Amino acid sequence: MPEHTANQILVSPPVTDHDHEIPVVFDSPHSGTIYPDDFGFAVPSAILRMAEDTHVEKLYAAAPGNGATLIAAQFPRSYIDCNRSLLDIDQALLATAWPGPINVSKKTEKGIGLVWRKLDTGEDIYSRRLSVAEVQRRIATCYAPYHKAVRDTINGIHKHYGAVWHINCHSMPAVSGLVAEEGPGKPRADFVLGDRDGSTCSPEFTAFIAATLRGFGYDVKVNDPYKGVELVRAYSDPAAHKHSIQIEVNRKLYMDENSRAPNVNFAPLQNDIARLIKSIGEFARANIPEHGHHHDCDHDHHGHDHGHHHHDHGHGHKH
Ligand SMILES: [Zn+2]
Question: How far is the CA of 170 from the centre of ligand 1 (A)?
Answer without folding.
Answer: 4
